[in-house]
User: Fold these one by one.
Assistant:
Number 1:
Amino acid sequence: MQRQFTYPPSFEDSLTKALASYQLTLKDSKALAKCVQALSDFFIHKPDDATPWHETWAQVAYLCYYLPLNATRLGAIIEEAEKRNFFAGLERVIDFGAGLATASLTLSEKRSFKFQLIERASEPQKIIEKFFPQFQAEEWQRTFSAPKLKDPGKTLAVFSYSLTELSDIPDWAYQCEALMLVEPSTQQDGRKLLQLRQKLLENGYHVWAPCTHEGPCPLLTQSKTDWCHDRVHFAAPEWFNKMEEQLPMKNRTLTMSYLLMRKTPAQKINAARVVGDQLKEKGKDRQMICRGSEREFLAWMHKSKIEQEIPRGVLVEIPDDIQKVSNELRLAKKIEEYL
Ligand SMILES: C[S@@+](CC[C@H](N)C(=O)[O-])C[C@H]1O[C@@H](n2cnc3c(N)ncnc32)[C@H](O)[C@@H]1O
């Protein structure tokens, strides 16, 4: 029961054409990996500097590494959003810090929105317009000033890996009906996102996912180290695996921290989110879940002979009569996924 994702198939043709403009192909594993390593080193050594979009190696690295990986993560979040009917009534998207339009490209594969992109560098727009003709933006904006909000009540503001330097969303975003916030699943960024969740709840937003409740986040309030993050398996194509063989970092699974929020309340659901990996302990297995402001675990004793693998990130139905021992909900039979 793995949750497997990949980037939209239409990207492959665009990536091939874009790389050809640098005299590269998807099979040039070593040359591609060198560019990825250079951008990765840049992010590690200069975390506060702007993405060096003017550098050819940074463009190549984004195209063959960060774009496919982030689009795969976003694909999983978009699938969750679709399950919750999160996009109902939304017509416009503002993609802040759009980079190579990662979020907009991925969303446009599933839904027809009107897209406004905000990106301070000019190179990404040129690459997207030339090599991703299937995607039509209504507008690219380069300034940091507030975008023109055309219909805020039908607008989704997207922040995909673009909040890292900000402690809050910009003022204009508070006028938008819906928010999709995606951050690296590091302890620091993840916990910052949980603090922002609290602030957004206080400012009239409702959380649609991953939370199934609007109480204080137990990972933030009951722990000093936890942070909420999802994990999916990456169904990588062969060219990606070959490139990755040349790199120290491996991406068989991808993690991300995210929040989907709207001013409209979400439909109440009687389910819990699985927010941890399975922990094998003496005599029992445990897995962290979230359904309220308590930090809780599902637990099943080995003597009960329950064999199950619950993917991190899914929703599960908690039986009303479940036995609770301390912070453990003891399962008497296999858990059902909430669909
Ligand atoms: C880490 S990249 C994320 C790109 C893309 N959203 C993704 O998910 O792959 C952050 C981007 O935000 C842009 N950026 C940062 N601050 C910005 C600002 N104040 N206004 C517009 N763009 C900004 C950077 O140029 C960079 O392309």
Number 2:
Amino acid sequence: MLPANAVQAAQHMLLPYLLQASVVVDATAGNGKDTLFLAKNTLSQAAVWAFDIQPSAIENTSRILAAAGLAEKVRLIQASHDTLGSTLNQPIDAVMFNLGYLPGSDRHIATQPNTTLAAVEQAAHLLTIGGLMTIVVYPGHASGILENQVLQQFLSTLPQQNFSVACWSMQNQINNPPLLYAVEKRRELRR
Ligand SMILES: C[S@@+](CC[C@H](N)C(=O)[O-])C[C@H]1O[C@@H](n2cnc3c(N)ncnc32)[C@H](O)[C@@H]1O
């Protein structure tokens, strides 16, 4: 069966990568559903890192991890994901971005093109060979349109010798449905 939406498609694509991952990242923890997905589907010795700027997101994520008995496995970081490189500074096997705003919360606290791009660049640099980054972007709202433009410009110019980049979306949904970008590292970029 096809995934119902871009977030489900991201989780579906990530599953085989998680089975062998040591370090994985949720760059936008929100209500913790994606962090829980990462914690549940990685080996017990894997480390999961989750970032969000909102205290309520960190609290909600902490709560659902504790309820699932997975709190120990996850480092919750209340900071912008563009600090990912300096916070982790180690290879990452898989990273998820689920952009935009937290449903049911202040829509003004949404991801922004410049910090998203910086975080995606850092994640692409830290990704292990054979590692996967997924990015779900929401062009149905104004800042999502800009965010998508910036991401598309960056991702479409990644050299194909170093990265495979794909885009998935539902083609027959109204109101600009979310897009999923999937980025797999093939070979290190020389800097
Ligand atoms: C669509 S929600 C994420 C949903 C979440 N993954 C889940 O499973 O519930 C987007 C989240 O990005 C967070 N966010 C906004 N700007 C951010 C930034 N610069 N760094 C990290 N998180 C950010 C928001 O606070 C919000 O919680």
